[in-house]
Amino acid sequence: MSNAADTPVLSARGLRKEYGKGEGLVRAVDGVDLDVSAGETVAIMGPSGCGKSTLLHLLGGLDRPSGGEVRLNDRRIDNISEKALARMRRTDVSYVFQSFHLMEELTAVENVELSALLAGRPPRAARRRAEELLKQVGLAGRARFLPSALSGGQRQRVAVARALSNEPLVVLADEPTGNLDSAATLDVLQLFKDLRDSGQTLIMVTHDARIAATADRKFSMRDGALMDETWPTGGTTGQLGTLVRLED
Amino acid sequence: MGRILLVTRLATRDLRRRRTEATLLLLAILAATTTLTLGLVLRDAAGDPYQSTRAATEGPDVVVTAGQAIDPAGLAELDKLATAPGVTAHSGPYPVIAGKLEASGRTSDVQVEGRDATVAAVDQPQVTQGSWVSDGGVVLEAAFADSLEVGVGDSVTLGGRSFKVVGAAVTAAMPPYPGASCIVSAGCINGAIPKDRDLPAGLLHNPGLAWLTQADVRSLASDRSSLSYVMNLKLADPDEAEAFVDRTGGDHGGAMPMQAWQSILADATDLAKDSQILLLIGAWLLGLLAVASLSVLVGGRMADQHRRVGLLKAVGGTPSLVAAVLLVEYLLVAVVAAAAGLTIGSLTAPLLTESSAGLVGSAGTASPTWSTIGLVTAVALGVAVVATAVPAVRAARASTASALADAARPPRRTGWLIALSARLPVPLLLALRVAARRPRRVVLGVISIAVTVSGSYVLLVLNAFLGDQPGTGAYTEAQVAVLRHVLLVWTVILLSLAAVNAIVITWATVLDNRHASALARALGATPQETAVALATAQVLPAFLGAVLGVFPGGWALFAAINTITGGDSDRATLPASWQLIALVLATVLVVAALTSVPARLGGRRPVAATL
Predict the structure, then answer these.
(1) Which InterPro entries does this entry report, sorted A to Z (chain A) (predicted)?
(2) Which residue of B96, B313, B446, B610 is surrounded by the most CB atoms within 10 Å?
(3) How many CB atoms lie within 10 A of CB B172?
(4) A56-95 pLDDT per residue, tens
(5) Does A95 touch chain B (CB under 8 A)?
(6) What value does the mean pLDDT of chain B take?
(7) Is the ipTM of this complex over 0.95?
(8) Residues of A in contact with B433 (CB under 8 A)
(9) CB distance from A103 to chain B under 8 Å?
């Protein structure tokens, strides 16, 4: 399905995820092939329950496939140990979740530095990097705030900063604007555009046509399979300014 | 009425739906109620054989002794007592002589009482083996014979003369060996004697009791003045015995010591009292552990029942109704635990009393008194209410909307601990943060372990003390065995409940941290690191609890036991430093082992499904 000329940083072949048996068998992901090149932004769209989030979990090693394979930097990750997967998540893959998943008892800066600490970075270096990232996402003044004191958009920006903490190869975002109001959505859209511009590889699962429009490629997913692939070429899609106009 | 039915129905349905948790709750309270029942029933259970012996031997209400060198006028005074107001029957005065008994290569102090071969109206010892006294034949008090391992047909030496053992008998006129009361004027001392102390000449140490014919006793006496006398009185009203002793003994200025049957009963049940004290202390410790268990279990269940509370309130349940439903659940469990504890405690108490050979009959199945039933039930209900009241009221007051949304209770933030943990390796970093999220649970974990280790400290002291006893004579080997049984029961229940607590606390932590653990794994923590963190979050409080359990916990508990029992702490051997270090390390290792399984399960929960 990919036209990418470069060696893909992340690829899937015949990826399947099944639940249940016999008549109760459900194919959440059904034979997905996907290649994502370095620096590319890919959006996957589809209705609720079509298997978008499951696909994202399989691509990031959060879940094990029933069949097929996933490669990260040409190394298979679908059959490696839990420990190796954990190590991979420290440095190579990171997540942005729809419901942010911030630790409620940690401040914004403590949440952001957590990934670096888990990766064994020295505490001071982890804190410095976290503060830089919060500055990048426009939350330098809120670094010592608990998540409960932040708005939805601010929480998602903290989550994005956390995802970038270890400079991952790929960021996987699961409905990153699903829990946000319009203003916050625009904030996050801008952030994702900045990520794309900086060359960060990004795979997003979303309902939101506006955020999908920021992607280099867009897939539609239905009943566990990728149906269509769209290559935005500019014009009225893929441009943030246009998105703002869409909002109007 | 409808409201009561509704509350009961909701409570019972929920208990049936969560059987494992209900069973754990039941076990936690049951351990405390059983031990408490054992402690309370024990005295009554041990008192029964004495009463049986008293009935079977026409036991005296008052025993009067008269000293050596008593003149004819003194004997006349004894005779006067036999006709004192309130006295309905008597036996004696019988001559008594102090001496040494040699048997089976052992020598023991003995009080030898001269009796008639015929049956006495008061205090006719009941022969349990062989026959009653005859010339040249000695009858030994049954517990004494048992201790000397002497039986009918053996020979013993008394005052340099050989006598054939013709029988063993029990009496209610004196506590069984080695607690015998003194009926010779030379004086007696019971219990342990410090090695550096010499007894005054002639003083008997842990004397046994033997019966000969009066003629044989008199023939053993070097002269008439070496004899003492004992007389047994039966009163019209046995309950007045102590008053009779106060009244009549006072008239004689203490020259003729008297002992009321109530006092003999108290001495005869000394062992049971010691067992009872041990069990009651154990029961209170277990009560504390039960509160800790319940608090964790209830806290975990309340978090789980948040949505149910919301539903109840959404359909019109008032906060008081919600609180009532939650409280009734635990009160029902407490009532069942109280009933089961009373039954098990009553049935097993006789196994721990093992009425000594010095009394007839067995403790049997002593029925708990109303006060025992009331106290045990009150403790069970109290434990349930203390552990449940706060979470129940908190749940009842929760906002209906947030309860319906099943919003989790936000974790606590402990800033300094979070900052400190950032400098530690990943498992410790996560462990400290897991612990910091629920400080109340950590405190409960610390208390639980501290209580267990305090109990273990006291067990070490008591075990060492009992190990020394057969040599000192304060307890016979059989009695030491009984007390060791009591300690064993105490230990097994205490450690079992502590183990259940450790597992329950860990599991509650696992459930409470499932989201945080999944998130940590999504951010790169390995399953092993997450599992180690969950286990370490229990081990760190366990270490603190173990240290506090040794000091001040164990030390304070032992001091409290000494204060309650009037014991002499100088006689006890405190645990050596290496024992205390081993105790702390063993505690930490056991907690680590117990928590590793639930922690491992928690660390391996699927991340995607949890998030």
Answers:
(1) AAA+_ATPase, ABC_transporter-like_ATP-bd, ABC_transporter-like_CS, ABC_transpr_LolD-like, MacB-like_ATP-bd, P-loop_NTPase
(2) B96
(3) 30
(4) 999 988 888 999 999 999 899 998 988 888 888 888 999 9
(5) yes
(6) 80
(7) no
(8) 103, 105
(9) yes
